[in-house]
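Database export, one record per block. Field names are fixed; values are copied verbatim from the stored entry.
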Amino acid sequence: MPRITSVTGALALALAGALALSSSSGAAPAPSGADAAPERTLTVYSGRDEELVAPLIEQFEEASGIDVEVRYAGSTELAAQILEEGDRTPAQVFLSQDSGSLGALDAEGLLATLPADITSTVPAEYTSTDGSWVGLTGRARVIAYDSETYTADQIPADVWELTKPEWNGKVAIAPSNASFQAFVTALRVDEGEDRAREWVEAMVANGVQRYAKNGEILEAVNTGVVPVGLLNHYYWARSEQDPTTLRAQLKFGEPGSVSALVNVTGAGVLAGSAESTEAQEFIAFLVSTPAQEYFAEETFEYPLVDGVASPAGVPPLSELGGADIDLAQLSSVQQTVDLLTATGLL
């Protein structure tokens, strides 16, 4: 695997400083005439939604002077595109909403090794084990529940409890959603194929309610249509009103179990761009304090860099205690889709 030339901490600090300056006084004027520097460009494939990350990318452009061209699509779709393009891909950086898509590219040798001064900014459990990509934000799986019907201690912290008769017809999931499929993939990795199939089949037999999106589940719980639902924490945390006043409240999973899964968004540099200083600067920027604060305040995901506060209204990341899983192993999503299809959830 190609190795990227090390990026110094000074570079990340310089970008952070430039970002702070650009927010108050505008970007510095570009040189002109014979002394103008060559145009600096970067091509990013982004599995993150444009409305969420485009403002951050614009801030990076202002701070760095690098013109970023972005292709937006689903993370799985873009990973498949890169696999098809191989070393011909125009992508220099892949920004993914899940670790599994990054793991799939790493398995094919399509990602360069990031320098330790980037990967070491993120706790080992939330980034790649081989330095091929770096985690950017955490996404905790939670149970949203109707607080007018249940108290928190009546809601199980173990998803296996939801297969019991008392929860028949009372649980909502979004089986076509990538975050649910990542969770089932984690269940397969952590507890084995047979146990994962057992859980899925038990949920089907227990009359699980199916929705298209996490947001729809939150709305259904918040209006009393369904008592509980499985989703990611930030759908609740970024509510337009104070989420602590919602009818829907959150139950976090049992620490150390797959019920407490914290999946991550992440970024990697494509192998053919291992020597790209623009790609290096972009990745360094994404793990800088200003970018991490942006994620916490604008997307309500957990920042992964030490010293940046968690989103309002949710427990600190250090208290969640997710399962001990190599997140790169969540790349086997197709096997999960096959399982969900075979059991009638898809």
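Remark 1: Residues 5-12, 16-33 have pLDDT under 50 and may be disordered.
Remark 2: DSSP finds twelve helices and ten strands in the chain.
End of record.
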